Amino acid sequence: MKTAIVLGATGGTGQVIVPELLDRGIEVIAFGRSQNKLKALVEEHDYNPRLSYKLGDIFDYQTIVDAAKDTDVIFQCANVKYQEMEKQLHLLGESVMKAAEILGKRIVIVDGIYVYGHQVAKGNENHPQQPHTKKGKIRVEFGQMIFSNKWKRAKALIVRLPDYYGPTSQNSYLQPTLEGMAANKISVFIGNLKTPREYVYLPDAAKMIVNIAEKDDSYGENWNIPGAGLISGKEIIRIARHVTGNRKIVIPLTINAIRFTGLFNSFMREIVEIMYLTKEGFVLSGEKYEKRIGPIPVTPFKNGLEETLRLLMRNKN
């Protein structure tokens, strides 16, 4: 891979894929709708000569075709809002796959774990896809469309991430907690504080995603991106208090609290059905990655949380 395009480059995942590619000497095109955000991204990377940007609409396949025609790999990091998933996710998938098909390109699709539903077996790529939620079923259909036989020239793979955190994170479950702690405010934690859960540090995820994308035999398959193990909300808050000095209360939002808040907030209303993950957790296996790719990059939670919180605190000042 010598050239790549990152769709949704200014989002949480896109912002870590871009520097990972640049660090490997790969020429990168950042793709998105906001010229201001794309310009800021280029500036953030000190106007690296290997980084450029192109404006386009993820739902307009022709703009992707025009932007990606001279690249080797397409990284699809754009997403849709929870409350718009039912209407827009399939349209997004069709658009990016149609562009990859026209160009005959390899395409990496970044997705999550809702397809698995409750954990009933080891969390590897063969875990049954038997979701009990609307979002999970939508994601299963999305994955089936990505790997549809109707695409003859496009070569796709899907990487699945658990909940994540990191300096570029924007919409993760941990974000309200970390932002509140960094701003020395009363904070909320989505879910109970006792359940050990898996989180992946986004820079680690970026390394794994690009490593997978560089292997020709990775395509046509699902790949799980595991985190650094399990950690409870209590432990996350303990680390955050040490870094920020914030001793203010952190309020755990249970399913009933989320359900009530959802009466007034469409985003919170959509979270209710996936709150099972905050109670049960779901642990991804990295066996396939280790066997086919190599050692899993692991940033200890203490280090990753410190880096994330320090950046959030700098941005608040």
Automatic annotation (TrEMBL):
It holds the Pfam family Epimerase. This is Nucleoside-diphosphate-sugar epimerase. GO terms for cellular component: cytoplasm. It comes from Scopulibacillus darangshiensis. GO terms for molecular function: aldehyde dehydrogenase (NAD+) activity. Coiled coil: none annotated. Residues 5-225 form the NAD-dependent epimerase/dehydratase domain.
